[in-house]
Write a structure and sequence with these properties.
Blueprint lengths: L1 E7 L20 H14 L9 E8 L7 H14 L8 E6 L6 H8 L5 E7 L3 H7 L5 H13 L5 E7 L6 H13 L4 E6 L7 H8 L7 H17 L3 E4 L2 E3 L6 H7 L4 E4 L4 E3 L3 E5 L3 H9 L5 E5 L2 H12 L6 E2 H7 L2 H13 L3 E4 L2 E4 L1 H4 L2 H8 L6
Parallel strand pairs: 1-2, 1-9, 2-3, 3-4, 4-5, 5-6
Antiparallel strand pairs: 6-8, 7-8, 10-11, 11-12, 13-15, 14-15
Helix pairs in contact: 1-2, 1-10, 6-8, 12-13
Length: about 375
């Protein structure tokens, strides 16, 4: 089984913190859809005939696509790729301001069965600070409207650690989603990424930088509140009620094959990784010439080990020692893990090394300490 990711590189406006590839001009939307259809055709053999068990529309803002656009894309997918006979997970990322009752009903008539809603906060102050296109009322209404027409499989994005988000507001954001019985939450710490509007504002002093202690306290509260509400903390940023894990994202963390279509999209087939050009015009031009615009990297044993450590430690399943042994780095990993076992940020359960609650906020740093270099 494999996954398909489609990058839709358009947004109504630029969020101050975002460094993903997108354009705020929709002039090339039709040409982009045509190019995506062409790439789906040209890449039909990439997954080696494995059936798709998940499809994920990301971006950008995929909810800017019309039903006709989606119908064309699904037609191409089902024409060129075998799909799982039952239970395929089909996710579309959506902004609250796009999810009008009419739009939700249109989406309900497509194969999409899961919505990932970019709420980020129910606070007007937060939303203005982030330069989101929606308001708090729209955030609440779109969730209720989606539920009313039968979208049960919902995940909602929230951002914590923002200088605009008080501890009280963070608690209210989580309480709202718990009361709505949202089955899946994705919660991300605000990061000041280079070359974003937020980075420029912090440099100029017109916005406060992210305070690590403030963010850590909100992450701690997040873990405790989610646990009380019955959510499993199955990946650093992801929380799910029983049986509501994101199957698409879990496939990334578990090393399954996936094809990425669209500008800047990444693909992985077990041995190599490739990524498309992050330029809309160049992407469209290349596909018009029936040329795939990607760069490719064949993964070395060190890279495969490092990727496994980086992704595995972020999950509830952790890193399996037998898998690490197969990759050839057993002694390197076990020696490196000793200090973290001693200080309580990591635990060993049978053959699985996992981060403890105190280690989760330090996941990236711990993984970096366990990485191998080309000399290993």
């Amino acid at each position: 089984m494999a996954g398909l990711y489609l990058h839709i590189p358009f947004c109504k406006q630029a969020c101050h913190y975002c460094n993903f590839h997108f354009s705020t001009s929709l002039k090339q939307k039709d040409a982009m859809v045509a190019a995506i259809l062409q790439e789906l055709h040209l890449q039909k053999d990439y997954l080696g005939g494995e059936s798709l068990e998940t499809i994920y529309f990301g971006g950008g803002t995929p909810s800017l696509l019309g039903k006709h656009d989606l119908d064309l894309i699904f037609e191409a997918i089902f024409k060129h790729y075998p799909v799982a006979a039952q239970n395929m997970e089909v996710t579309l990322e959506a902004n609250p301001d796009d999810l009008t009752p009419l739009k939700i009903n249109e989406l309900r008539s497509t194969p999409i069965n899961r919505l990932s809603i970019g709420v980020q906060s129910f606070s007007e102050t937060d939303l203005r600070f982030m330069n989101r296109a929606h308001n708090a009322a729209e955030a609440l209404a779109c969730i209720q409207n989606a539920q009313s027409v039968g979208f049960e499989n919902l995940t909602v994005d929230l951002i914590y650690g923002s200088p605009s988000t008080s501890h009280q507001q963070w608690a209210e954001n989580l309480s709202t989603l718990v009361s709505l019985q949202i089955p899946h939450l994705s919660c991300y710490c605000l990061t000041v990424e280079p070359k974003t509007a937020l980075a420029h504002q912090v440099k100029k002093g017109t916005a406060r930088p992210v305070d690590d202690e403030h963010a850590a306290q909100q992450f701690e509260y997040l873990m405790e509140a989610a646990q009380r509400a019955g959510y499993e903390h199955y990946e650093i940023s992801n929380f799910a009620l029983p049986d509501w894990h994101s199957r698409h994202n879990a496939s990334y963390w578990q090393g399954k094959k996936y094809l990425g279509v669209g500008p800047s999209a990444h693909s992985y087939n077990g041995q190599s990784r490739q990524w498309n050009v992050a330029n809309n015009a160049a992407y469209i031009r290349s596909l018009l010439e029936e040329t795939l615009p990607f760069e490719l990297e064949t993964l070395t044993p060190v890279q495969r080990y490092n990727e496994y450590v980086m992704t595995g430690l972020r999950t509830v399943w952790g890193c399996n020692l037998l898998k690490i042994k197969d990759l050839g780095f057993e002694s390197h990993f076990t020696e490196g893990a000793k200090p973290f076992l001693l200080d309580g940020t990591m635990e060993l359960d049978g053959e699985n090394y996992r981060l403890t609650k105190s280690g989760k906020f330090l996941a990236d740093g711990i993984a970096a300490e366990l990485f191998a270099d080309s000399g290993n």
